Automatic annotation (TrEMBL):
<feature type="domain" description="Sulfatase N-terminal">
    <location>
        <begin position="214"/>
        <end position="557"/>
    </location>
</feature>
<protein>
    <submittedName>
        <fullName>Sulfatase-like hydrolase/transferase</fullName>
    </submittedName>
</protein>
<feature type="transmembrane region" description="Helical">
    <location>
        <begin position="137"/>
        <end position="164"/>
    </location>
</feature>
<keyword id="KW-0812">Transmembrane</keyword>
<feature type="transmembrane region" description="Helical">
    <location>
        <begin position="107"/>
        <end position="125"/>
    </location>
</feature>
<feature type="transmembrane region" description="Helical">
    <location>
        <begin position="54"/>
        <end position="72"/>
    </location>
</feature>
<dbReference type="Pfam" id="PF00884">
    <property type="entry name" value="Sulfatase"/>
</dbReference>
<feature type="transmembrane region" description="Helical">
    <location>
        <begin position="81"/>
        <end position="101"/>
    </location>
</feature>
<keyword id="KW-1133">Transmembrane helix</keyword>
<feature type="transmembrane region" description="Helical">
    <location>
        <begin position="179"/>
        <end position="200"/>
    </location>
</feature>
<keyword id="KW-0472">Membrane</keyword>
<dbReference type="InterPro" id="IPR000917">
    <property type="entry name" value="Sulfatase_N"/>
</dbReference>
<dbReference type="InterPro" id="IPR052701">
    <property type="entry name" value="GAG_Ulvan_Degrading_Sulfatases"/>
</dbReference>
<dbReference type="InterPro" id="IPR017850">
    <property type="entry name" value="Alkaline_phosphatase_core_sf"/>
</dbReference>
Length: 718
């Protein structure tokens, strides 16, 4: 979610002390296994080489040396992970981090660590060649076992293995040589089993006519205006630029709500959040159960009836997918709850083993799946591995993959070398590697800092573009690209200190940067839409994220008894605009803080900050929720709402003094500085359209100019 988990944990440390103990024990067990493995391997190498007992201090020094090499490599690859350590706990050490990232490539440490691993195998080979005894076979077996356990994160099995080995002592000499041979063959089989199983499993799936694979490839916070933007003459999205030549491009596409959970709920159900009630990041149990119900089926559930299987892949911002019934058969994304946050905070203190936990060296990222939810870990490689694995297994069979990258979401954390791509190499301030959003801080960074923050964002966009290029390239290499439906979009955009708009998303609806996101759709080459010339594949009319479900239902010719507020985009393919004047709706998310000098804080109806509103619900796997119905209705009542067409935007702002309206010319005033309400001739028409939309889809009522949302209980009774 990209929020600071520290404050949440402070609130609940006492109430969930048992959770704290168990999660701490889990991290401790992983640490013990990793440290024991390193000591064991170093001791084995020295023992086989000189046949003498290794001094304890030499052993400790050698392990510490290896851990430091791995740490330095990891610090260069992912400096954001270590940002808290260097910028908040021990800021006097920050120059050392600067030195590493500015002057040394991670390949240097990879090379040194690789030499050490190679040296171990050379020592093993030498011992086998010279002695060919049972000790040699045991040593090889021991190294292979530890490598297998490490690569699969089987730390509990590893601890039991060490106990077993310690109890056996020299009894390995009593094991028959043929037994060692069988064990080695079995281990090698286990190493190759995943690839073998995938090859066998892929035989189960075959292409079905009219059911192309569907790929929804998306990134959190990807702004429309970043597509094709050039810096020093170079586009920051070269792979997406190439994709536009094969796809229909919707140039004025908007999200319904600039917060991740409700935005995805709207996109995948085709319904407004004001109707299905997932309106913020912390829905109550009753609210989230509505997603996937007969009234609000997702496109995944609908296509499931047509033989499709569905998968979701993502990093920390994708933690919304396991938290509601979106209809995915498998979700390869982290969850978000108090227990997982405790694991993350505890693991972050184990700086020497962090490189092994995030797999920055020698593939160890499977120890703690909770670390997938680290907002400072912007590495897309692990997501691409999961994507490639699924595509390799499923081929051209009926399935969909929703891929959701978090690298562009604050704190903007692309891995090496991308974080250097557009940033100033001579900047050494607190935003050198990342920038969180502090909802309580309305102060404006200086121009150098703003430039750095925007450059981090641009570098993150470039990093996602590279992920996108890898996925498209893999689909082409597998012969899947031409036959697939590929959709590129985002859940929302991001404000980056334009005018007085601040940084982040969800707090207000001014400007173009927060709701205006990309939408590109590539249909199979066999479809009738591919006969439309490329020059006619650009649509300038306004579209909404709720249009995706009607579009896919139309493509697959699936009838529905439900009424959808969106429109099928198939009807306008080949056109430049709608025949009618279309309006699209958006609303704000929840305000995390109730303090600050932001312009929207001065306008809004106040309610307590998120730390006062939320609860940790043990019955829901310790998820963080807002369960008080009074607060939920207050949040809904306080929302800012907008309606816009291709030229104008009207914003509805309820305040304690009455309802305020803002009306802007989108073309002449994209930053929304000049409020034209109520004098513009379109203002009254758009106000009427806004009220009509909310009354219809939220079943809202009016009290003067205030929109009164229907409560969840009222809807359930109906």
């Amino acid at each position: 979610m990209g929020v600071d988990v520290g404050d949440f944990l402070k609130q609940y440390l006492g109430a969930f002390f048992g959770v704290y103990l168990t999660t701490t024990a889990k991290v401790f067990a992983v640490s013990v296994f990793i440290q024991t493995s390193l000591f064991s391997l170093v001791n084995l190498g020295f023992s086989l080489w000189n046949r003498s007992v290794v001094k304890w201090y030499f052993l400790v020094g050698s392990v510490l040396f290896i851990e430091c090499l791995a740490l330095f490599q990891s610090m260069i690859m992912f400096p954001q992970i270590y940002g808290e350590f260097f910028f908040f706990r021990y800021p006097s050490f920050a120059p050392f981090l600067y030195f590493l990232t500015d002057t040394i490539s991670p390949m240097f440490f990879n090379f040194v660590l690789g030499i050490l691993v190679l040296l171990l195998f050379v020592i093993l080979g030498r011992h086998v060649y010279l002695h060919k005894n049972k000790e040699s076979f045991f040593a090889i077996l021991h190294v292979l076992v530890l490598g297998f356990l490490h690569s699969h994160g089987l730390y509990l099995v590893g601890l039991l293995y060490f106990v077993f080995v310690n109890l056996q002592g020299k009894h390995y000499e009593n094991v028959h040589t043929k037994t060692y041979g069988l064990l080695l063959i079995f281990l090698l089989f286990l190493y190759g089993l995943p690839s073998f199983w995938m090859g066998i499993s892929s035989l189960r799936y075959s292409e079905e006519k009219g059911k192309p694979p569907i790929f929804i490839l998306s990134a959190d916070s990807l702004r429309y205006d970043k597509i094709g933007e050039k810096i020093n003459g170079q586009s920051i999205t070269p792979n997406i630029d190439l994709f536009t030549k094969d796809s229909f491009v919707f140039h004025d596409h908007h999200t319904t709500i600039p917060r991740t959970f409700p935005s995805w709920a709207d996109t995948l159900t085709g319904k407004y959040s004001m109707e299905h009630k997932i309106r913020d990041m912390f829905p109550s149990p009753e609210e989230k159960q509505r997603i996937g119900s007969p009234s609000f089926p997702t496109i995944q559930q609908i296509l499931k009836k047509n033989g499709y299987d569905h998968f979701a892949i993502g990093s920390f911002a994708a933690d919304i997918f396991p938290r509601a019934n979106f209809g995915f058969d498998e979700v390869y994304a982290p969850n978000f709850n108090a227990r997982i946050m405790t694991v993350q905070r505890t693991a972050e203190t184990q700086i020497l083993i962090m490189p092994f936990l995030v797999g920055s060296w020698f593939s160890g990222e499977k120890y703690l799946e909770e670390l997938d939810g680290l907002s400072t870990w912007g590495d897309g490689d692990r997501l691409l591995k999961r994507f490639d694995s699924l595509v390799s297994e499923r081929g051209n069979s009926p399935y969909s993959i929703t891929y959701f990258s978090s690298v562009i979401h604050f704190p903007y954390t692309p891995a090496f070398p991308h974080y250097k791509r557009f940033t100033n190499p001579h900047y050494y301030g607190k935003y050198k590697y990342l920038k969180f959003v502090d909802p309580t801080d309305s102060s404006l960074p200086n121009q150098e800092e703003i430039s750095q923050i925007r450059s981090l964002f641009d570098s993150a966009v470039y990093a996602f573009d590279q992920e996108f290029g890898e996925m498209v390239g893999y689909l082409k290499s597998k012969g899947i690209y031409d036959d697939a439906i590929i959709i590129l979009t985002a859940d929302h955009g991001e404000a980056l200190y334009e005018d007085i708009h601040g940084q982040g998303h969800g707090e207000h609806l001014r400007g173009e940067s927060v709701t205006h996101v990309p939408l590109m759709i590539k249909f199979p080459k066999s479809s009738k839409f591919e006969s439309i010339p490329s020059i006619e594949k650009n649509f300038d009319g306004i579209t909404s994220s709720i249009d995706l479900v009607p579009t896919l239902l139309d493509y697959f010719e699936i009838p529905s008894q439900l009424e959808y507020p969106g429109k099928s985009l198939l009807t306008i393919l080949g056109q430049r605009d709608w025949d009618e004047d279309r309006f699209v709706y958006s609303e704000t998310g929840i305000w995390f803080s109730d303090v600050g000098n932001h312009f929207f804080q001065k306008q809004r109806i106040p309610y307590p900050n998120i730390l006062s509103l939320h609860q940790v619900v043990p019955e829901e796997d310790y998820q963080i929720m807002i369960t008080d119905p009074i607060y939920r209705e207050t949040i809904a009542f306080s929302k800012h709402r907008s309606i816009q067409n291709s030229n104008y935007k009207l914003i509805y702002i309820p305040t304690r003094e009455g309802v305020r309206f803002e009306f802007y010319d989108r073309k002449k005033d994209p930053l929304n500085r000049n409020n034209l309400y109520p004098n513009h001739p379109m203002a009254s028409k758009m106000k009427e359209a806004l009220y009509k939309t909310v009354v219809k889809w939220e079943n809202a009522s009016l009290a003067g100019e205030y929109l009164i949302p229907s409560s969840l209980s009222d809807i359930n009774e109906n």
